[in-house]
Amino acid sequence: MNVLIFGAVCAPTISQYVKNQIAEEHKNINLNAAESLIKDPYVDDYIISFNDLQYGQNLIRDVRAILQKGGMNLVKLKGNNDSILAEVRKNLTEKDKKNEKLFSTEKVEKILGYFLDFEDDSITLNFPDEKFDTTLMNGEKNPTKKEILKFLMSHFDPLGLFTFLTSKIKLIYRWTCKEKLEWKDVIGNQLMTYWQQCLKWLKECKNIKIPRCYALNITEAKKTQLIIFGDAGKEMLCTVGYIRLVDKNNMQIKTSLIAAKSYAVPIKQKRSIPELELDVAAKAVQLNRIITSSHSIKFDEHIYATDNACVFHWITNGPQKPSQYVKNRFNKISTETKISEWIWIPTEWQPADFGTKFDSLPQMKYENNWFVPPIFSLPEENWVQLKPPCDIVQKSLNVYLEKEVQPKINDCQAGYLNFKRYSSWDKYIQVTQLALKWKYLASKKVRRLREEIKKTSDVTPKEALKIQINEYLSNIHKTDFLYEEAEHAIFRAIQRQCFEKEICTLKNGDKLPKSSKLMKICPYLDKDDGLLRSKTRIPISLGFNKDKISPIILPKNHLATVRLILKYHENNKHVHEKTVIANLLQRFYIPNIRWTVKKIIRENCMRCKRSLAKPDQPQMGDLPSYRLAMHQPPFSFICIDVCGPFEVKRNRGHEKRWILVSTCLTTRAVHMEILHSMNTESCLKALQNTICLRGAPCRIISDCGSNFIGCNNLLKEAQDKWNLELLQKGVITKKIIWEFNPAKASHMSGSVERMIGLIKQVLKNLHNTLSTKMLFPDDETLRNIICEVIGMLNNRPLSMEYMEGDEHTLLTPNHFLMLRGNFQSTSSDDHVNSCQLKNWLEVKKLINSLWDHFHKAYINEIKYKDKWLDFTTPLKVGDIVVVADPTISSLWRLATIVKAEQGSNNQVRKLTLRLGKRSVIKNNKGIKNAYKEEKFTEITRPATQVAPLNLSSKAIANNLENIEI
């Protein structure tokens, strides 16, 4: 790179890199000069100081020589001693002599935000007054919030030497943020008084001259101390660092301010004074680390001073039951400092106090309490070994341990109600009514009644007062006065929270600014009830209700507005939003009311959410491994289910029979066994018959029928015994794995369900076409029908592609069972009268007549996958869902997901849900006042039977009254 673009963002970084690279490559000239060239410059200013004149001359000469090797040069050279640059002037080249910018002729230079006077070697404040309006700097014009911030940021004080003043300007800006002023809003008269005071102090600060050098005799000091002070107020924090030199007689030689830093406390942060003091102590440790790393001076001692007894007690003894806030800062302090390095001082000796309070200001000269704290004028033994008195420690600890009690507000209009604490509008009204009752009990009328009762009544004052007060309050209830007063108190509280600026403007008789959101609706303050209302075009003479003529203005995003809209929604029996909007417009003006009502109802009404909830169908899963298990015997993996019942003729009566259908999940072969009952014993016998005829399966899949569960338990017990016997003979037997699909998940065993559907269809058609004598067949005939259906299903084609080498044969399940696939009929005479045939021939003829229809229907069903194509958002553990039951959707129960099982494509298939029933305990008056928690039950359901609500458990708790889990 030969050319560097002027003004590029990366230019300072590149120039610093090049400068450091030059110093690294030419260390052989002078190692000290190279290290100084890397560490001492700040951007384009190179400032160094030294005690030895000869050393300084050689250092500047070698620095210039190193820079010239890289094509750079030092310009505007200036020192507080002319002999420093004498060596430079002797060795000037012809090119340097022509350079007019090589030496600076200014007596005062601007360096890093300060004025450096080379004559008296002092630093003064550099503030760019020319950037601001004269009327603003003279205090004749009220500044805006934007101008205050610009004024604050224009003052560059990297060392914080004038923190005692800049912290006051930060306080003013913090107050503008607390009053929620906009950027172009002008500050009020009270803040203007503080602003004028800061301008006066700023002019006085410009006369303060601070010595540039800490001390001329640092090397003569026996001990060099770095002392950090920290103090905290309710609105500002401040840390200050000083260097203190001590001679051999333990007497102070010199004390000088090194650096200071102030911080504004966040407006929304609610911390006690001890917590803020501990935060300042942590920041003092941080300031100590910065000062130590940026100085070549080696400090013999590090001292931290605090005036808070609670913080000193925590650091020396450790905090008891600390909060996470206290614990984090205490750990930081304890890891980087020692207990012996901390001291306690009285508040009068705390110099950092000047940076935390607006009224606290030192004298505008260098020898004030900020630059030279009075504590250093005392012997070291008088302030190093001080300890706070026990009563001060206990008092300071109580401030932290005691909970902050909010001040009591007697006026119900002051907005004392905590809207987050109550979950319904009725609760707001009840709490406010209770507060109004206490207000009326303490009113002048009740006190007057008390005085009259003591003088005239023969009844005891307590009983008479109770009677009079009850009558007084009962009259209030009869006229609904108390309910209306409670509503107005809540409305006033809402408006003061959201429209405080507009209310103050209207009270003062001023016009609202054009930037106000309420400008278009002509707001005004009602003198009767103190509410902020909107002026409409309806004349008062028409006799309409006051709320209709002048609606009450409410914010759209306030929590109480949400509760009010939900109350109207419940009163209208959860009908369409338009009805709620029409009723609200009779009394209130809510900005963007249509969108607000729709959003609030859809997001917060639990009853509507439950009634409108719909289950999501997950994307169709991948085929499991057992569907593609090649080179395995048929019926190694089976799915079983029961169809029926079917009535058979037995003697002169009728009995029910069921069919156990077993489907091979790999070859799609079918086997059926007759069940004489639905109990576990009959199911087990049928399963044993299937195993004897088709072989023992490795895995069985079924639904959660009670007969299957009982059969599984019996098989486990039997297999355990069989295994013990076989193991004794040296034979290893593999157990059968039985898997159960969740309840109401028929799609998970779709293979067997399709077979059952086909079987039912065949038998139904048979039932419709059979003669009257054959409507109720006997067991032998039913067995014959089942065998015919098994043969037909196992001879159905699995694919439309012909087998290799045979253009007339399609692959069927019989190829895997019998090594041949043709299904031979025992009779083909279709023209014989059915009445002359025997029973088995008539059944055979009817089954063959349905073959063509069965063949076409089966092929068309498995031809395409035309459903469950969309990918749905997976449900997670802890989500609140609705369990879909065959009832009205509004009666579906809520549940929490305890376990979610996913398929191969990351779609949730099976869920374990926790259900609980909450019963309401009512008092004698029938009012709901408590809930009794009963035991939770867990159920398993497929994902298709669950409707997500997109709510957390916290949202459910907020709507506890409207939900029954």
TrEMBL record:
Signal peptide: none
Pfam families to which the protein is assigned, alphabetical: DUF5641 (PF18701), Peptidase_A17 (PF05380)
UniProt-listed InterPro entries: DNA/RNA_pol_sf, DUF5641, Integrase_cat-core, Retrotrans_Pao, RNaseH-like_sf, RNaseH_sf, RT_dom
Protein's recorded name: Integrase catalytic domain-containing protein
Native species: Polypedilum vanderplanki
GO biological process: DNA biosynthetic process; DNA integration
Chain segments annotated as coiled-coil in the UniProt record: none
Gene Ontology terms for molecular function: nucleic acid binding
SUPFAM superfamilies according to UniProt: DNA/RNA polymerases, Ribonuclease H-like
Domain Reverse transcriptase per the UniProt entry, residue ranges: 1-116
Start and end residues of each Integrase catalytic domain: 629-821
Superkingdom classification of source: Eukaryota
GO CC entries: DNA polymerase complex
